[in-house]
């Protein structure tokens, strides 16, 4: 059996701190923030971990050349074990979603799981890769809204999806490095995402404008600074650092969206996961 450390690295366990906020933001926007949200967040984490394990299984030959320290090429996890972990976590995630949110949540969890596997097995190395990964995160937000009004959560889902697109576009240059045009484009996208998240929900008048604005600024400062460093020095190491910042810096964005939907206290709690995520990322790489 693989060691606990190897499994933690396989699924990028600490990076899952960036996941529950998707569900919370969706639940807040869709008017569905209830005790069942915790179960949907757990389902989301399982599906995220399944995607990480499936990613390493699909990339095992490439990682043997580019990242031989990863669990599969280093021999700490066999390919069949990684595939089993991915499949088991997928089943667990879909089952938890059904138990917590019923048929409406299941109707989102199934396409979410399918999109995760489609990205890992087919889309990742194609031009459609960033868009497919963005769809995964957008569906994750809608999973939180499933017991409520999903349509109301679409703006939040699109905002998180746009952020994810920028992170995924950068991640494709983690090994080779990037040209300066890429971080310039993703940085512009980040500014637009932050602006969208920082606007309070004017239609219902809920939530103090200062809270979503401050959380959106926190998000933009952390992730934006990392991208600016890539623009100055587009080396592979700087790109990897920016991708990590995009993953671990997601909670302030999710918090801003929750606050804009009328849950400022919840938004602050979600955003507070960011420092812990960054600290854990120093021990286990989120990429």
From TrEMBL:
Signal peptide residue numbers: none
Highest taxon of the lineage: Bacteria
Key words of the record: Membrane, Transmembrane, Transmembrane helix
Principal subcellular localisation of the protein: membrane
Location of the protein in the cell: Membrane
Pfam family, one: UbiA
InterPro entries found in the cross-reference section: Prenyltransferase_related, UbiA_prenyltransferase, UbiA_sf
Gene3D superfamilies: UbiA prenyltransferase
Membrane association type: Multi-pass membrane protein
Entry protein name: UbiA family prenyltransferase
Gene source species: Phytohabitans maris
């Amino acid at each position: 059996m693989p060691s606990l450390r190897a499994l933690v690295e396989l699924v990028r366990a600490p990076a899952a701190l960036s996941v529950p906020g998707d569900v919370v933001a969706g639940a807040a926007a869709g008017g569905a923030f209830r005790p069942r949200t915790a179960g949907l967040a757990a389902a989301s984490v399982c599906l995220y971990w399944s995607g990480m394990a499936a990613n390493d299984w699909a990339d095992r030959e490439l990682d043997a050349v580019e990242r031989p320290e990863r669990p599969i090429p280093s021999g700490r996890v066999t390919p069949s074990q990684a595939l089993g972990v991915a499949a088991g976590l997928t089943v667990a995630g879909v089952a938890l979603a059904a138990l917590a949110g019923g048929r409406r949540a299941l109707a989102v969890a199934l396409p979410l799981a399918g999109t995760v596997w489609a990205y890992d097995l087919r889309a990742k190395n194609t031009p459609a890769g960033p868009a497919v990964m963005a769809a995964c995160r957008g569906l994750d937000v809608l999973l939180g809204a499933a017991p409520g009004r999903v349509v109301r959560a679409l703006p939040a889902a699109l905002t998180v999806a746009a952020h994810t697109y920028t992170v995924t576009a950068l991640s494709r240059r983690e090994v080779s490095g990037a040209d300066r045009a890429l971080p310039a484009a993703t940085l512009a996208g980040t500014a637009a995402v932050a602006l969208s998240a920082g606007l309070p929900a004017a239609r219902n008048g809920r939530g103090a404008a200062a809270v979503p604005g401050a959380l959106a600024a926190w998000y933009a400062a952390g992730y934006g600074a990392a991208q600016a460093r890539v623009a100055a020095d587009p080396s592979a190491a700087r790109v990897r650092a920016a991708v990590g910042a995009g993953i671990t810096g997601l909670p302030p964005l999710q918090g801003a969206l929750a606050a804009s939907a009328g849950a400022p206290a919840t938004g602050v709690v979600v955003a507070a996961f960011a420092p812990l995520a960054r600290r854990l990322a120093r021990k286990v790489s989120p990429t």
